[in-house]
Amino acid sequence: MDQARTSCRRAAVVFAAAAGVALSAGFSFAQPAPAPAASTPAPASISASIPDTIAQRLLACTACHGKEGRAASDGYYPRIAGKPDGYLYNQLLNFREGRRQYRPMIYLVDHLPDAYLREIAVYFSSQHPPYPPPQRVNVSDSVMERGKQLVINGDASKNVPACAACHGSALTGVLPSTPALIGLPRDYINAQFGAWRNGTRRAHAPDCMAQIAERLSRDDISAASAWLASQPLAPDLLPAAASGAKLPLACGSVPQ
């Protein structure tokens, strides 16, 4: 895990450097470097061999999030491929503006403008690589049943709505800005609930997920993450179309 995170930090450095040099819309995010001396021109063959495409520039993202954004093999970094572009864009803004705290991501997006963050979001939302096999989770049947209950039905005694009520009946997310839960690594789900509970992950008010995280016990969170991570996955999962139905909780990051 530590080795994977070190690789991600290095990738963020590379991405941030590249972003200041070449972006599709021609943005400039850093002071231009001094022009090379006339006697030492950059080899034309090197620049000519690297295509200036959004896919090429975002290879740094895949060092952590896996090829095409399909999720890392270490069981922590989440899948970003195929998620609604509105969700991905909101999260990039949240990292840039301090509502989410993870240093490599903050470093990566700190000086990128809205338009380029939107381009990144649209690119990854259009990627649909196959999902990995579900994780093996070693928990009791009663824990798994509790997780299923929370995800499908919620818990009225705690004023916790079903995950499916917001994230779609198939848990594949809902356009334009609600993410899928199916296929996420268990460690990532647990970590995000922890971040909402301790305030290192926030969203625009009202922050519905922070409210839900406060109402769930650690055992509840562990059960829900175990059930979600262990579910079999169809090969053609896509976010559901927006239905216009009223959400059980007001969420500042979701259009109403």
UniProtKB/TrEMBL annotation:
The cross-references to InterPro entries, in alphabetical order and at most eight, read:
Cyt_c-like_dom, Cyt_c-like_dom_sf, Cytochrome_c4-like, Cytochrome_c_Oxidase_Subunit, TAT_signal
User: Does this entry carry the keyword Metal-binding?
Assistant: yes
Originating organism: Undibacterium arcticum
TM spans (from-to)? none
Report the Gene3D superfamilies cross-referenced here: Cytochrome c-like domain
- The protein's superkingdom reads Bacteria
State the UniProt keywords alphabetically.
Heme, Iron, Metal-binding, Signal
Ranges for the Cytochrome c domain? Answer: 142-232
Its protein name is C-type cytochrome
Where does the signal peptide begin and end? 1-30
Q: Give a yes or no for keyword Lipoprotein in this entry.
A: no
